[in-house]
Amino acid sequence: MDPFDIFDAYFGESNGFFGGSEFRNNRNHTLDIRYDLSLSFEESIFGCQREIEVSCFETCDKCDGTGARSSSCIKSCADCGGRGRTLNTQKTPFGVMSQVSTCFKCGGQGKKITDHCTQCTGRGKVQAKRSIKVIIPPGINDGAMMKIQGEGNFDKKRGIAGDLFLFVQIEEKPGIWREGLSLYSKIAVDYTDAILGTVVKVETVEGFRDLQISSGIQPGETVKLPGMGVPSMKKPSVRGDHKFIINVEIPTDISDEERALLEKLASLKTSKRAHSIPTSESHNLDQHEMNSNQTSSSSKGSRLISSILGSISNLWSRTTSITELILEYLSRFFNTGKNSLEGDSHQLATQQLPHLCRLLADHMIP
């Protein structure tokens, strides 16, 4: 019985002690083709159909893959007997060990060619170009690998073909980058537009679009255009957003007119803060303003106001009701003091009456 048949029955066609199937698969891998496919940023987003030209090996038509000038030029290998393998037997302390290996002389072919084909120079295959149409799905990632089965090199003698492996490389797009299904861009907005709000033109993968900037937007905030991002490869109807990161531009050099307007704005903000002072502080300011007005008025008016305040204090000590106090004060003032006032003194006293009443109401009512 042929020892090779016994070995193959237990271990399969192998180039060692074990792993025959692995050996066969490795031989098939030599038929595979790698192709680096470069895509534009937009092609990776929307997908495309490309026709590529692949370098491959095809069976030589002249020798039909034998590599010989004619069939008479093919001789069986004397070393392996045409099997392409040799069986080496060795005695060891554990018994007799047999190992099958590729025939070194014929390279595993089992034959020797005495006269090679002039077209393929004995290789049995020739270099060729093949055009293949490939479909790129929307949303493909950079570095993705696509396998197209049966589009590799073809071995006519064995009747098998390898596979074509496409390795995708996506070109960068200035100003736009991808993170998952989202696209990102940075845009600059003038500080006045950030305060007032505006509409700006922004670049997307579908051309330029209007982007609404809301008033009061802050640096670093994002504004998005929904559904303008990357489609999902698993579900192309689902698409991410295009997000824009806001950078508020503050000028370092402004014109005199701009400076004047900004200073006016600053004064308005200062005035607004002054009007928002708490009530107790506002009363103190009103009292200070009243005292300043009294100082600038005639000495007669000042003495009259002091007299009025003194009379109010005396009345307060003799009355128990704030309403009674105010009525008593007004009665005395208008019946006795009003006719004796003249000019600015009369006007000053009349203007201060409501204010005095408010002070009484704020500070004296229990």
Automatic annotation (TrEMBL):
Keywords in alphabetical order: Chaperone, Metal-binding, Repeat, Zinc, Zinc-finger
GO biological process, one term: protein refolding
A GO CC annotation given for this chain: chloroplast thylakoid membrane
PROSITE patterns for this protein: ZF_CR
Start-end of Low complexity biased regions: 292-301
Matching PANTHER family: CR-TYPE DOMAIN-CONTAINING PROTEIN, DNAJ HOMOLOG 1, MITOCHONDRIAL-RELATED
Protein name: CR-type domain-containing protein
Protein source organism: Stephania japonica
